[in-house]
Amino acid sequence: MDIQELRSSNPDHWMRATAIRALALDAVAAANSGHTGMPIGMADVATVLYGNHLKYDAQNPEWHDRDRFILSAGHGSMLLYALLYLSGDPEVTLDQVKNFRQWGAKTAGHPENFLLKGVETTTGPLGQGIANSVGFAMAEEMLRARFGKKLVDHYTYVIAGDGCLMEGVSQEAIGLAGRYGLGKLIVFWDNNDITIDGKVSLSDRTDQVKRFKASGWHVQEIDGHDPVAIDAAIIAAKKSKSPSMIACKTHIALGHAAQDTSKGHGALTNADQNTAAKDNWGWKTGPFEVPADIKSWWEATGSRGAADRAEWEARLNEVSAQRQAEFARVMNGEAPKKLSATIKALKKQISENAPKVATRKASEMALEVINPIMPETIGGSADLTGSNNTLTGDMGVFDTDNRKGRYIYWGIREHGMASAMNGMSLHGGVRPYGGTFMAFTDYARPPMRLAALMKTPTIFVMTHDSIGLGEDGPTHQPVEHLAISRATPNTLVFRPADAVETAEAWEIALRQTGTPSVLSLTRQNLPTVRLEHKNSNLVEKGAYVLAEAEGKRQAIIIATGSEVEIALAARDALQAEGIGTRVVSMPCMELFAQQDEAYRKRILPAGPVRVGVEAAVRQGWDRWLLGERGREAKADFVGMDRFGASAPAETLYEKFGITADNVAAKVRALLG
Amino acid sequence: MDIQELRSSNPDHWMRATAIRALALDAVAAANSGHTGMPIGMADVATVLYGNHLKYDAQNPEWHDRDRFILSAGHGSMLLYALLYLSGDPEVTLDQVKNFRQWGAKTAGHPENFLLKGVETTTGPLGQGIANSVGFAMAEEMLRARFGKKLVDHYTYVIAGDGCLMEGVSQEAIGLAGRYGLGKLIVFWDNNDITIDGKVSLSDRTDQVKRFKASGWHVQEIDGHDPVAIDAAIIAAKKSKSPSMIACKTHIALGHAAQDTSKGHGALTNADQNTAAKDNWGWKTGPFEVPADIKSWWEATGSRGAADRAEWEARLNEVSAQRQAEFARVMNGEAPKKLSATIKALKKQISENAPKVATRKASEMALEVINPIMPETIGGSADLTGSNNTLTGDMGVFDTDNRKGRYIYWGIREHGMASAMNGMSLHGGVRPYGGTFMAFTDYARPPMRLAALMKTPTIFVMTHDSIGLGEDGPTHQPVEHLAISRATPNTLVFRPADAVETAEAWEIALRQTGTPSVLSLTRQNLPTVRLEHKNSNLVEKGAYVLAEAEGKRQAIIIATGSEVEIALAARDALQAEGIGTRVVSMPCMELFAQQDEAYRKRILPAGPVRVGVEAAVRQGWDRWLLGERGREAKADFVGMDRFGASAPAETLYEKFGITADNVAAKVRALLG
User: Any catalytic annotation for residue B590?
Assistant: First the structure.
């Protein structure tokens, strides 16, 4: 690449873009870690995007109608920090840039949405950003349909690297964006031919242009260092009714000794080479110094959107107060006031009628009263709608000709669904929930973890939550997935025992603003165990006494979900023998752990023997069985210590010993 | 679709294929669950494949040089069971077919490789089969290169549905097969336009032909009910030097009332409709009855390969006894005899030199002595070769022009890599291991679970196993992934403390024949803690006393991996105060759990207080801290209860309190 020609052909642009390059070079060198080459390679694209197109107001990074910019290639985080610093984001000071990757800095190794308002989504695990972006773009379409383009009308831009495109989830994202005609989604592919192990061709020879076209995308190929070509491509992409991919041929670590090599992917810390690169670029100021004229241009760019924002605010003020309030409510993720009364009414009705239904069906019953009063809910399933019970009659189906539709047929794409739901949550204004089988939590693990890390209140509706699914066999029967979800910080895992607990769990999940929820629901029917209506939400405490011991309390049986019924039957048997037995329903271990010690001790007093029952592995249970600091109780567990098998559900419960008889026997054995 | 025309144009073929249809219809109806439509739709393809092409010997389903047939669309399991029954697989009797999906039957809901020899791989979680097949085809290429085509020369056939192709992992598989020119891989796409939720177009409009072509595949489009076209396409595919995809336009539930509908995907149990379908097909015999002439044809098909097998055995007998023994050894997955001595020599050298190295580096040191004596090992990494330390000098790189290469650049495809490694393990003759960052266990979860379920001894080399990876931050720092791996049945999770334990862990992992291993390895350097050489493999016991208490034993500190160093330092501080403290290194909880109670009690006697240390969540530890039945010890834990952060590793350990000071303080507090 002839740097001199690049410098001379568009000198102003060159120096603006090189401000990004120099900051990335300096920050990575100072941190002695990070990724220098990508920000250098994509500086031109980013400069044209921010300079000429991106609708944003650097001083107000959370303005609702901003264009979204997602750095899917998150390792190139200094590209984003440089953009935010240069254009005047108040959080990204020069000190922050200098403290890149250090303790307490907001400029973390990878962009973290919970550290900086200017970061739309946490990226780094490759492919997630491009899959998030599908959700961002869907949310925009939905809100535009609901509130009108005067309030919602923006683009979603993505920079994705070769790594993002090799990850399978990218195919799910590409397929979804193509299918749903997300024309306001524009992806720049940083086509630099380099991965960590070497040339891209070492491991992939896919023709990405053909691949995107196969899914109905609008595709352009440009020189990613030519600002005129970049600008023209963005203009064309914005006009396209299909999602757009702009293949940007770039040179990683452009102008540096490491250019076009996999060394250029990582941290460039050789001082002499870095000095030579700056010379090559024509960059004369010292480390972290940006010439005033260049900084001024960037700040002007950063405030370009202030007028747009003011106009938008004026338009917002023109709509009715009620509409303004509703817009604010959904953008802030607040549940409607009547949610509480709605759930109470449903609970009362359930306790009275005592239906025997699967909790997946109970979930549908809850959604049937929730969806009409929460127009922000967006349902969906990864091709298991009838099994996950996620669709209610009033939703309508989201499609190219029905942007008001609130139900999404995600196809067989659990990973893409979960990532896109995270994108929706992050965009704001919608409240996504989506279903698959609990065992396929495995496919959705990367975004389920990221939901927790990013503090997005995405709701995962995981049905068929144990061997209770029966004949489909061990590939479809979760045994470790409750433990997996519970092991993840900042995640609420609900395993409701009946339709009342399911309604309560939904209410709690919908009130979260910073925590994702996993609803673990049965395939098989369960009796109503909450026969006495209570206004208060008992699931909120995580665990509570469902049936008290009669006589001296000798044993406590703790159970969740479908095994609460078994615990109650075991209690009946034990009480008949005079063994006073309490049954504790524990629908949410995380919420129980958050209660004060007095409450926890009231529910699980030291002394009585304890038996836990859950059709899953024991891992995660010992804290409640053995006592939080040890020496509290003699205890045992009835559950699964192996994979399941293919047979009718009742047979499996019997064969694997998850029965009232077995629970009662364990209690007796512990009592010696 | 005009069934009469199909019946009359190829009447013999029609009835042979319809035997599959009728068996699937009957078995699903009897089980009252399962998937009828897919076996009906793909019966023609399967009949031509088995009848004219597939090299197999039904009586000897494990013959090493058979063609492999993988039903990626595993829900259509009755297709496979019908094929095995009809062609005379001795395990698949008519009783087995009649007991489809029942307790104890080998004919499980989805095909399970551990129940039936004739099932190559467990499928059901969509996309796994097609990704496994990449490993099968790679293993064939590698073994052909090593042992010659006289011993190894076969095809890998796959039936994949729309669900398989929508799952992201299929793109990883398609990319890999295209890149590595796996010409003996032939995929039939069951192009029936139907998913569970409705038409495929509901959620996807990808042009699959263009998509496969974009990755360099040979693609044909045929009528999947035309036996002449199917035959011609297979002949052409076999000649292709590129992997082949045959798009088979089919009708799900062909000839049934549910044809071409999503109802046809599931269990067709309406007796009248089923009778009508059989009439339509011209099938006159009763349930589960196959006319003798048709059964004879199928049995002849099933024994067609017997001659091939005999010739192959003759060729095998022609090679040297040594070569025969080596072939048998690798196909049986036996480690070489000298492995033990090799590991001992390495351990001795490490204990003498006491290097301070990361366990990822220690893993490389182990591989440097293992790979030369185990020509069956196949290494690789998902684009982190230099970080995972998985490549040793002698391996060579697998490529289109170097099939003897033993190292695979998997690209940024953790899911595809792990699935393909499972395929290799299942094929036999090779011993795959592959690396990524421990946090990206998330991407590989579906095949990591399947490895455990399928009893394949795949080795997952997971480096950068804690906050110790430092600046890359929380997206890259596992905290829950040890718990996740440990929650999975039949999985050995090793977290070695130094280079000696790493070598021991490798030896154990390589000796497994039915259990996958996860090696959890550090980025950061660790001192050698095993300074005294022992011939015996201490990791084999799962946990052992690394440093005994001096004086009265008041405390036991249990630690793994990088935290063993911290435990030893805490012990020093406590001993200095006269607090007798034992340090237990626990590199593998699963192996420790397998020891007899006497051993476990010797290592963890009741009485002394216990503190666990691991830079991860506590989940999974309580059994060892609190005692297996409760009331054993007062205990505490030092680890992580949140996600990590971006900063240098030492800072993070300090800030998160994973320090010797904190461990010692916890011990003191427990001792009160």
Answer: no
| pLDDT, tens digit (0-9, with 9 covering 90-100), for B121-168 | 999 999 999 999 999 999 999 999 999 999 999 999 999 999 999 999
Residue B1 has pLDDT above 70, yes or no: no
Q: Does A463 touch chain B (CB under 8 A)?
A: no
Q: Which of residues 132-171 of A touch B (CB under 8 A)?
A: 162-164, 166-171
Report the number of secondary-structure helices (H) and strands (E) in chain A: 26, 20
Q: Do residues B546 and B568 make contact, with C-beta atoms less than 8 angstroms apart?
A: yes
At B216 the three-state DSSP class reads coil
Catalytic annotation, pick one of B414, B507, B563, B565: B414
Integer Cα distance of B275 and B255 in angstroms: 11
Give every CB contact of residue B75 below 8 A, 6+ residues apart in sequence: B34, B35, B38, B110, B124
B145-149, Cβ contacts within 8 angstroms, sequence gap of 24 or more: B145/B403, B145/B404, B146/B375, B146/B404, B147/B323, B147/B327
Cα–Cα distances in angstroms (integers) from residue A89 to residues A36, A92, A298, B278, B283, in the given order: 21, 6, 11, 71, 74
Cα B632 from Cα B556, distance rounded (Å): 12
What is the pTM assigned to this prediction? 0.98
Q: Which amino acid is at A27?
A: A
Place of tokens 């757009």: A244
Give the Cβ contact number of residue A99 at 10 Å.
18
A residues 183-222 near B, CB within 8 Å?
Answer: 195-198, 202-208, 210-211, 213-216
pLDDT tens digits, one per residue of A113-130: 999 999 999 999 999 999
Contacts of B216 in chain A (CB under 8 A): 205-206
Q: What does the pLDDT read at residue A630?
A: 67
Q: Is the pLDDT of residue B249 over 80?
A: yes
- Look at B475 and A381 and tell me if their CB atoms are within 8 Å: no
Would you give the DSSP letter of residue B268? -
B642-652: burial string, b at 16+ Cβ within 10 Å, e else: ebbbbbbbebb
The ipTM estimated for the assembled molecules is 0.98
Query: Residues 328-387, chain A: which have Cβ within 8 Å of B?
Result: 381, 383-387
Q: How far is B40 from chain A (nearest CA, A)?
A: 19
In this predicted structure, what is the pLDDT of residue B633? 80
Q: Does B645 touch chain A (CB under 8 A)?
A: yes
- Residue B202's closest chain A neighbor by CA? A409
| Tokens found for residue A166 | 């090799």
